[in-house]
Fold each of these.
Amino acid sequence: MLEAANAYSLSAGDVGFMIVCACLLFIMLPGIALFYGGLVQNRNVLSTIMHTYVTLGVGSVLWAAAGYSLAFGADLGGVVGNLGHALLAGVGLAPDAPAGGVPHVLFMVFHCQIACLTAAIISGSYAERIRFPAMVLFTALWLLLVYAPVAHWAWGGGWLSRLGALDFAGGTVVHINAGAAALAAAHVLGRRKTLERGEVAPHNLPLTLLGAGLLWLGWFGFNSGAALAANAQAANALAATQLSAAGGMIGWLAAECFHYGKPTTFGAASGALAGLVSITPGAGFVEPAWAIAIGGIGGVICYGGMFLKLRWKYDDALDVVALHGLGGSWGALATGLLASAAVGGVDGLFHGRPGQAAVQLLSIAAVWVYGYSASRLILAAAAAATPLRADDGEQMLGLDLGEHNERAYQIR
């Protein structure tokens, strides 16, 4: 087996780089679990963390069974891939397309982590009120019917990639897609019973800050790994990621101080996350100096986006729509404005190519419409199979006990 593997012409540096990036991506999953877990009530922390952990199990198996093939298999009409790679058929050690210069199986694992992460992001919207069986069913169907087709559109040779839409690491595929699904879930599941009693304060902000730090670290692998090689574009993505996160933190804290009067640790963590989301689609296309502005504006946009749920009265428990939906939308548009051929081979509006901004707007609208509509249909199908929402009594008791018969803290 070793001799067969070594028969392929591979760059050890590129392979090692992508293995590290895939491992850094994995760190983002416990990162999002801790980030979300600290923000909910203490009676729901385990159930919230469980949403991410079970997504790793269910999502990985489904990705190998069919999701990867639907996303990256041979194109079927620009909409979805075929099932030629189902159960990883033909996904081996060779550097076959679309894997670039690394083993096909490594490319598959890298994108497996992204798929699981995207599904886990959605869980912040329906936290503290969804029943566990419904969550598992929704996640499974969503990965196959929403995530995989949208990934094909942008990355697998589908219609968005043919139009020239730019999405380096997942502004549309990951963040807008998750934001659209989160909005659908908030509309379908309704408001939490505990919200009526004003029980909204995070139970453990240090846990959230730890999660944010793990996300920031993992994001380097997320964005740099999208280059699929240890090259200059990966280095650009690394620098842009760091600077946008910093800009996002500053932008959010500035908006918070102007509006609220004081900076908060929650604002620092959320602002960094807003900057990371905002740069994801353009990390390999824009110059690093522009990343500061992209992140800073993203921080302000995402801060303001949190108040939309109060105005429009939907209960997005952990602000997935604001952070990921709006942050991803801004980032995708900013890529169309600021992309530079000197970095990623494509110019945007500010470099003399106005058509790119129009293509980006089309991609944003398409993913919002499909992601929301398809998610509503999947939630309706899941509701026909099993109750979606925990009843009022279980919500007041807490989903840790109600769904898992566990307590996070044994306080006597």
Note: Strands lie at 75-76, 80-81.
Amino acid sequence: MFRRAKSLVGLDIGSSAVKAVELKPAGKGYKVTAFGTEPVPPDSIVDGAIIDGAAVADAIRRLFDGGGIKTKDVVASLSGNAVIVKKITLPVMTEAELAESIYWEAEQYIPFDIQDVNLDYQIVDPGDAARGTMDVLLVAAKKEKIADYTGVIAQAGRTAVVVDVDAFALQNAYEVNYGIEPGAVVVLLNAGASATNINILNGGQSVFTRDISIGGNAYTEALQRELSLPYEQADQLKRGVAVEGVTFEDARPVLRAVSDNVLLEIQKTFDFFKATASSDRIDRIVVSGGASRADGFIEMLTERFGAPVETFDPFKRVTVDPKKLQGMTAEDAGPTAAVAVGLALRQAGDR
């Protein structure tokens, strides 16, 4: 029943680059059949909103042509303030009753007009007669935002057959590569250019998600401001490349100050989680995204939260031929490919 008729391409549309991964089943796992990454011009996407659709569509077209990716059907994802993810508690009911009442129930939890969103849900705990309640994960995304993303994909000559959420794509990639540890509380933290997605898992369940609107761009902007540098030089310096008249040592205190701000937001997220969760422990933090490579970020994260921190390897159990990685190593490609790998694991019509 779940044999996939054809592969889909996971397309992660980020504000600094678009990434694509195509997978196909191989034995008990998967292998990468195509991979690519292509920069997006600055300010084409701001806080998850597509400002310059033509520039983004061009980047997607170049990405597919450069990677020799023929597949037309893609899976994309959204994050940020146009997406609401909430776990809600409802009286125990059948699937059919839930399907009938979910829109009415959702209206109480969603700060947008229910007509303006696409809604999906999944029962995470069916409950029982004794307790009388069940837990349902509710996901709502603004139709307008979905249309913007599917529109640029169509402009690039491709079709979006599934639109997912970054935090859940990350979870898909994590489960395939690391498996599910019952009872373990694992934080998936994806630090992108304009946002940081956090998905807290307890075993195989997502128990808390939040998107923080600060990411790698904040480092570039701080270097521009504090060291009076143009964008290109600040961006290079952020990546550890010295520029004319400025050493990386000059940049280090500025980068650390931004990391402090990011950690403060992560701390708030963990505090929200601990206030609503039955346990306040965190067993492990797994980080991905280009901004997670900022100088000292992982060390500061480890120090602040006292939990083991590791870099997400989306190719841990997914076979990848280095020749497919466009001159990058799996180690270099991994942190930025996690969401795209998770998206490529989706199938049309699955939940």
Note: The chain has a mean pLDDT of 92.
Amino acid sequence: MKVQQSTQLISPFGGLHFVLKQIKQAGIDNFINEQLGSRGQAKTYSIADGLLSIHYSHLCGGSCIEDINTLGEHIGFHPGLSLPSADTALRIMQELKTEDDIVQNGEVTHQFNQHDKLNDVLQKLAIKTNCIIPAAGDTLDYDNLILENEKSDAAKTYKMSTGYQPAIAAMGRQIVFIEGRGGNTPASYKMDETLKQCFKGLNDNGICIENFRSDSAAYQQSVVEEVEKNCTYFYIRIDDSQSLRDAVKDIPETEWKPAVINNKKVEIADTPFFPFNGKKAYRALIQRRKRKDQQFDIFTQSPYAYYAIMTNNETSIATNLYVTQFYNHRGDSERNFDILNNDFNCNRLPFSFLNANVVYLFSAAISFMLFEWVKQIFFNKGVIENAAMRCKKFLFDFMILPPKWIKTARQWVIKYSQPATVTNL
């Protein structure tokens, strides 16, 4: 085998030039700088340059922040690309961090990090890219993500590992709210205040929420009251309690109807439910399945395992099966955590402290949003076959497209040998 060296400008990631073209045409870089401000005239790179460099690294298969440097070595020449070093990108994120809020609850110290400005940018960017239609009325899914790490301020989580436990709210594949939390802070702690901040930002940006879904951490009177102020309907898993057991006992056997949920045979029924020792009734959707050991539960006196959802949806369309399946779709939103960790490197936090790592989480969420946006553009143009593909598939199908830069007639021209679909861009 003979090897020849060439001085031609060839990049392995030719697809990046088309991504850059879409970002420039939509003014995403200018929009980010307008929202987050200037770093000063003396700075070579803007805030948008730093955040977008992380996005470009993700699309090209980068697994950590330092891969921005490797990308810079391979991308070659592009007259419109401003790619800072990894150190500069880290400095830009450090400049964006905010101070933590420390709450002392007895002997336990809770750490929070709120970044209203970046949450506002997330929501405004989702509207600008048409990833969210503000007045449409959508579903908000709320959950907490365990980020295991050994950073300087990491704390022990309920899984007995150290790390952080940020709160994340999403509308489909769009992350619209992030709150930094220490690992030892339960999801239920001050959840009503967190949701109050989340809904305030959404309302300020005209984003209408019709449905709210959450796990049993939201089963609190203060949380339910806050959600009812800002949403039409809510769906919250019910904690096991004596009131729930009493409600289960009151359901006649004739009310239980067979159904198949996630390929499992179950029975479902609904009943009025009075939570928090209150006088206000909600609707409890209860699902039961026979225990494998056939043992009778000491409290319910039946051989069933129970699973309950509380909702205020009493409309005719909201049948027992509809509500159960609608709540179960919350699992699709939890897939966002897998995508954030494995496609956008949230499991490889670059900083030693929570406040700076929260900024990195926002950069990953912005990258995730832009990825969904640009995929839809290329899908509509017939360039990619599947708008639901993950980052790795997008890398192999579109990003790895070696072009050659040629200078002709005193201007640079990029030359692709294939595929022919690039002419659509």
Note: The mean pLDDT is 88.
